[in-house]
Amino acid sequence: MILEQSVSLLHIDRINTFYGQSHVLQDVSLGIDEKKVVCLLGRNGVGKTTTLRSIMGLTPPRSGSILFNGREIVGKPPFRIAQLGIGYVPDDRRIFPDLTLYENLELARRLSKKGKTLWTFEKVYDLFPVFRDLRDRKGTQLSGGEQKMLAIGRALMKNPDLLLLDEPSEGLAPLIVQNLVEVIGRIRSEGVTILLADQNLKFCRRTSDRGYILEKGVVQYQSMMEEIWQNEEIVKKYLVV
Ligand SMILES: Nc1ncnc2c1ncn2[C@@H]1O[C@H](COP(=O)(O)OP(=O)(O)OP(=O)(O)O)[C@@H](O)[C@H]1O
Ligand SMILES: [Mg+2]
Predict the structure, then answer these.
(1) For the residues 199-222, what does the mean pLDDT come to?
(2) Whose CA is nearest to atom 25 of ligand 1?
(3) Per-residue pLDDT averaged across 16-39, rounded?
(4) Distance 100 CA to ligand 2 centre (A)
(5) Which ligand is nearest to the CA of 54?
(6) Which atom of ligand 1 is nearest to the CA of 53?
(7) Which of 119, 189, 196, 125 lies closest to 159, judged by CA?
(8) Around Cβ 223, how many Cβ atoms within 10 Å?
(9) Which amino acid residue places its CA nearest to atom 17 of ligand 1?
């Protein structure tokens, strides 16, 4: 039998992140192995988005370390962190409203780091078959759910090793959420590692191997997702709204 060796892709060690005087993340540590899906859980305002923004360098931590592929990324500008292979899909999507779906993808493709093209148009269209019909629609003419998918597709066109997804299931109809579960499974089967922030425990259970629960900017609990799902005490204490 061949045992799969786990290789650490992202290693966050005691980061502290502030907005002005406000100390939001407090000694947050977190690790993600290659090809795994990990989720950040917790109620509103606990620091999920801030954790993703800290990784991307958008709100850089004031102390602590973030190693990506063994390399320190704290202090690097966001564009550089993106070039190193981290894709970010913010909760407000930020696609270009006046460009068509195709143009949005094409722009991302051109920004992709050279020498590595795992994700082609065909592959992204296979992941989201509806894109074939929506190819010439402007960003503004896409539904909220379609814009969300486009934001993911666009991040993939840059061929990331690690994909950060903020609230991917939020506001989606149950059928679309089911579809997204499958999409995430297929992205991971292509070898992309995923860190997602989502309040939907069921969605996290169906997509993620491991979960980290935040409260007031502190990691209060971490475990295999299945264990969290079955741990009534933890769910009640930190997750039920
Ligand atoms: N730009 C900002 N300036 C000042 N404080 C901020 C800013 N953005 C977020 N915060 C504060 O930082 C804390 C963490 O916010 P964050 O957005 O990371 O939470 P979250 O877990 O993503 O919440 P949600 O589930 O609502 O998305 C909150 O108290 C929030 O009010
Ligand atoms: Mg958030």
Answers:
(1) 97
(2) 44
(3) 97
(4) 27
(5) 1
(6) 18
(7) 119
(8) 15
(9) 49
Task: Retrieve residue 160's tokens.
Answer: 């990331």
Fold of 8-234: Rossmann fold (3.40.50)
Q: What HEC string does 58-127 produce?
A: CCCCCEEEEEECCEECCCCCHHHHHHCCEEEECCCCCCCCCCEHHHHHHHHHHHCCCCCCCCCHHHHHHH
- What pLDDT is stored for residue 113 in this prediction? 66
- Report the largest interatomic distance among the alpha carbons of the chain, rounded to a whole angstrom: 53
The domain spans of the chain are 8-234
- Which is the closest atom of ligand 1 to the Cα of 197? 22
Q: What is the whole-number distance in angstroms between the Cα of residue 46 and the centre of ligand 1?
A: 7
Q: 17 near 25, Cβ under 8 Å?
A: yes
Q: Ligand 1 pocket: which residues have CB below 6 Å? A: 19, 22, 24, 42, 44-50, 199
Atom of ligand 1 lying closest to residue 167 CA: 27
Q: Position of tokens 């892709």? A: 9
Q: What is the pLDDT of residue 6?
A: 80
CA atoms 23, 26, 27, 29: torsion sign:
negative
Q: At what angle do helices 144-157 and 174-189 cross, to 10 degrees?
A: 10
Q: And the tokens for 48?
A: 């999920």
pLDDT digits (tens, 9 = 90+) for 51-76: 999 999 999 999 999 999 999 999 99
Give residue 237's pLDDT.
95
Nearest CA to ligand 1 atom 7: 19
* 47 Cα–ligand 1 center, Å: 6
